[in-house]
Amino acid sequence: MSNRHQKVYFYIGSNQDVSSHCEPVGYPHLLIALAEGLKALGLEIYANNSYWRLAPDSEQYLFCNNPDIGPDDCSIVIFGDVFHDKATTPEKLFHPNRQYTTVQIEDCDGCVTFSLKPEYRKADFIFKAHFNSKLKFPSNVYPWAFGLSDRIIEATSNNRNFPERQNTLLVNYRHKQFAHSVRKTVDKKVLGQIEEFISLDKFIDNNPPTNAYDYWQWHRTGGRHSPSYYQRLQNSAACAAFGGFFVPAFPKDSASKISRIFKAIYSRFGLQSNRIIQWDSWRLWESLASGCATFHVDFEKYGCQLPVMPENWRHYIGIDLDNIDKSISRIRDEPEILEKVSIQGKLWALEHYSPVATATRFLKSVGHPYANNYTEHNLAVHKYE
């Protein structure tokens, strides 16, 4: 088999490694998690920039720039918004004689995201987080997930046994300026009822870590690495991972002007629908990895689509916001369900959304020749047990 199939090329924005004190462009979590998995499976990872140091004082990177290796030397080329990034030449990237598969990964918020631009119909595949099965997307767009990175798995690995945890639901949202309409509905209609039998922890710690290693991780993730928060997750029975905005049933194109107007109206006046956008988050996966009973909306009802779906009341607790009393009664009447969900949710997340599991699914999705070499998702679970 050609050596080209061993190589994968990433386009990474310039000067993104804030560990070297450059101005950050962003934190490409989805690209990092995917690259970690591909590397663990034995593929070689190349990029237009060297990025994501493997240790604070290391000159080794997850993404390696090698002037002798370019996109045409690789089997897959993975990127974000290359038409906006001056570091790439999209016309050359999509040249008609290319032998590589082009894949865009997107985790953008909002109704209008760059993968919907007509120029991205040139991509062979677009894997999109926040995918909603009830909305209309172009034919080359498929559901994806934030998932787990090695950093998150390591930071949440020392879990307490469930009986040692506090009977607490963490409600810890960093961004208050643009409050999600789903969170506002939950705050108004759900949390007060839950607080009758589970205490709420709403403390938000935005202080940087004092430990040198954790500060390095905090700095290069744009403040998302928080050991104090991970510790509170591991000490708590449950975590609220609600997020997203209600959008109307019609039109199915959430980027349309009408849909965006109704999204704003729904948010302003507390209206609901059965379609939610912008629902995925690091918090969702951090909660699952920490062994919390993870609270969110009912994914099936609201169209929240993942490549591999969790089962409600087994892997997470999905609230039906049109029938809140039923969900609250079940949690109150079956207190043992929190422990069951916490255990099964963590196992499910590691099995299907660790870097290795994500990379295995990715290779199969794009029809890579190496895909048949990897058939056991549970190998990812054993690594982190």
Topology record:
Blueprint: E1 7-10, H1 29-40, E2 44-47, E3 51-53, E4 61-63, E5 76-79, H2 90-93, E6 101-106, E7 125-128, E8 141-143, H3 150-155, E9 166-170, H4 181-189, H5 191-194, E10 199-201, H6 212-220, H7 227-235, E11 236-240, E12 245-246, H8 257-269, E13 276-277, H9 282-289, E14 293-297, H10 299-302, E15 317-319, H11 324-333, H12 337-353, H13 355-365, H14 378-384
Parallel strand pairs: 1-2, 1-5, 5-6, 6-7, 7-8, 9-10, 9-11, 11-14, 14-15
Antiparallel strand pairs: 3-4, 12-13
Helix pairs in contact: 1-13, 9-12, 12-13, 12-14
Q: How does this model look, in words?
A:
The structure is a single chain. By secondary structure, this protein is of the alpha/beta class. It folds into two domains: 3-107 and 354-384, no CATH class; 156-244 and 279-349, 3-Layer(aba) Sandwich (Rossmann fold), CATH 3.40.50.2000. The protein has 14 helices and 15 strands. It has helices at residues 29-40, 90-93, 150-155, 181-189, 191-194, 212-220, 227-235, 257-269, 282-289, 299-302, 324-333, 337-353, 355-365, 378-384; strands at 7-10, 44-47, 51-53, 61-63, 76-79, 101-106, 125-128, 141-143, 166-170, 199-201, 236-240, 245-246, 276-277, 293-297, 317-319. Strands 2-1-5-6-7-8 form a six-stranded parallel beta sheet, with helices on one face. A five-stranded parallel beta sheet has the order 10-9-11-14-15, sandwiched between helices. The protein has a two-stranded antiparallel ribbon with strand order 3-4. Strand 3 and strand 4 form a beta hairpin. The radius of gyration is 21 Å and the shape is globular. The chain starts with 6 loop residues before the first strand and ends with a helix. 41% of the residues are buried.
